[in-house]
Amino acid sequence: MENVDARVLRCARGWLASGYRVMLVTVVKTWGSSPRPIGSMMALREDGPCIGSVSGGCVEDDLVHRYTSAYGASPLPQSTPELVRYGITADEAHRFGLPCGGTLELLLEFAPAPAGMDELVQRLEAGQLVQRTVDCQSGRVSLADASAPAAVQFDGARLSVTLGPQYRMLLIGAGALAEYVAVMALFNHFEVTVCDPRIEHRDTWSVAGAQLSTEMPDDAVRRMKPDARSCILALSHDPKLDDLALLEALHSPAFYVGAIGSRRNADSRKQRFIEHFDETEQSLQRLHSPVGLPIGSKTPAEIAVSAMAEVLAVKNSILQPRR
Questions:
Q1: Would residue 322 count as lying in a domain?
Q2: Quick check: is 244 in a domain?
Q3: CA–CA separation, 139 and 279 (whole Å)
Q4: Is it the case that residue 134 has pLDDT exceeding 80?
Q5: What is the per-residue pLDDT across 4-45, written as a single tens digit (0 to 9) for each?
Q6: What is the pTM for the complete model shown?
Q7: Helices 263-276 and 239-249, interaxial angle, to 10°?
Q8: Same domain, 137 and 178
Q9: Phi/psi of residue 143, each to 5°?
Q10: Are 157 and 135 in contact (CB under 8 A)?
């Protein structure tokens, strides 16, 4: 499952290539509670179809009513970008279904250039990290290579959004827990690979959309080439497999490295890594073990919820990568 940004941009490119007028909408500011984060995007076609989301749904409906011919409005103008706000008053917040006190500001791009949109999508499909900058006065768009993910930058005159390939997850071990984690990760738009050289576990794998690797775990980590959008979870319960992956992953830029097991197992692993593999207290601070948030989980499904919640919390900078 590809990420939402890629779907929005790819769809917008297709509409532009077919001769339709398209409006690209981006959340540039929020105040108070907001249903969608800064940088969220949607594309709106002149006759009504839309893809993506900037709110819980009511703002999207209002944009369709105001800017498309679906409800008799004038066709999308070929003009410079426009900034609009929703939810400034309590009445508006209620009308548009925004949380109490929630306000969002949107940048409306009425005429994104087909050539620029095509180049952006091609670069994203090639796995590149791209910074897209919009001049809010002229509508001119520039694309530049980015070396790392970055927060959205908006100063009222320019909007810069860093777009890139999907977040990736590597799971070691093809057991029941990995199946639940893989399903949740796919649902959250991660690209998922499951590594298990054990044929007896691998042959029962049944999660569509997740790639299956038969390599040894350390080879799988090296082949993955983890970056700041990658995470590795060791879930096999077999130290011969989990340790190989963890020792490789701990020295990568992956934003999350975790391992399943009890606290006793986690302590034993820590001592083993220090005594036999030259790891240190400092290098092991990156390791989340036992994996997951403490929610009292017991079953594979509950443990998967705990693990996925912690991965997302670290990804979204709610939890620090080290603990």
A1: no
A2: yes
A3: 52
A4: yes
A5: 788 899 999 999 999 999 999 999 998 776 667 899 999 999
A6: 0.73
A7: 60
A8: no
A9: -120, 135
A10: yes
